[in-house]
Amino acid sequence: MAEKAETAETAPDRDTEGVVSARERFQKLSEDVRGRYRDVSDDVRRGAERASSEIRRGTERARETYQDVADNARRGYDKVRDDAGNLTREVGFYVRDNPGKALLLAAGVGFLLGLVVRGRGDDDE
Questions:
Q1: Terminal C-alpha separation, the chain
Q2: What is the mean pLDDT of residues 22-48?
């Protein structure tokens, strides 16, 4: 019976030790989870910052490329417009200097275009 009394007296101490041990393990686990959460949060933040930086760089490159293409298109359009204006003036000068040749040339071009548009007569059957 002495053993039972001793066991009954030490049982609360063992229960208290078990609760304290469980509380310490829970605290340690909780700190570990918080540390891992901070690490993951830091990794996510760094990844988001890197992605944001890459997006900004990509946007800037796209803007520069768009600007280059737009500038090239504008220069090309201006050149074609100037060349067309020059060609129109040159044709005008040629027609004024050579009206008969210009009329024959226009008639010949019209005749050829008519043949091309009309196509072959054999296909009608």
A1: 126
A2: 92
Instruction: Work out the pLDDT band at 122, boundaries 50, 70, 90.
Output: low
Per the CB < 8 A criterion, the answer to whether 102 and 94 are in contact is yes
Nearest 10 degrees: Cα torsion 50, 56, 57, 59: 140
* Structure tokens belonging to residue 100: 């008969």
| Domain parsing of the chain, residue ranges | 2-119
Structure tokens at 111: 């005749």
What is the DSSP code (8-state) at residue 108?
A: H
Q: Where are the alpha helices (DSSP H) in the chain?
A: 2-97, 99-118
3 state DSSP class of 68: helix
Average pLDDT, integer, range 100-122: 89
